[in-house]
Fold this sequence. Notes:
- By secondary structure, the chain is an all-alpha fold.
- The chain contains nine helices and no strands.
Amino acid sequence: MNKAPKRRSLPPEARRKSIMDAALVVFSEKGFANARIEDIARHAGIGKGTVYLYFPDKESLFKSLISEALGPLLMTAHARLEEARLPPRETLGIFFDLIRTEVLGTEKRDLVQLMAMEMRNFPEIAEFYHDTIIRAGLALILRVLERAEARGELRSTAVLKVPQVIFAPALLSVIWNANFARYGDLDLDAAFDFYLDTLFKPAEGDAP
Length: 208
């Protein structure tokens, strides 16, 4: 009689990463409400009890997933947008490029979709996501927009009251790919370029 293969022993950090990777897959497939710790453990190839050694419950696992998937992106954006004092339009172009390559072009897009669709049902997690990621991101965006206003580059200063709209192209991409991708592609580069054109006045010498 063949014995079941022994589970591979991994260092704690590698085991934790395997749980996080499995959680992203399971949450994306089942949604937060329907995902179970048992599903995550099965996908990671470990016992349910092992997951609880690292995370006390599903909520803490999801919060860690948000922090570790999107937190480093925010730090990278902050470093790149503040270091060179580039023109505001170019600065937001860098920000959009980071979103495209580091989120929308990876499995993290599924996490953003999940948060967009389900967080209204889980206010505690929504508050955590807002306090740890969104608030800092909006503050960074607002500084860029205020610099653009000081340089006389904005088409309308109304955007200073709603810096949240800067995320519109990214959210459109997430919603489109989740619901309508089978019917046609969304040109994300064109969407970002169009959005920058609506925010900023043309440079001198460019057609209005």
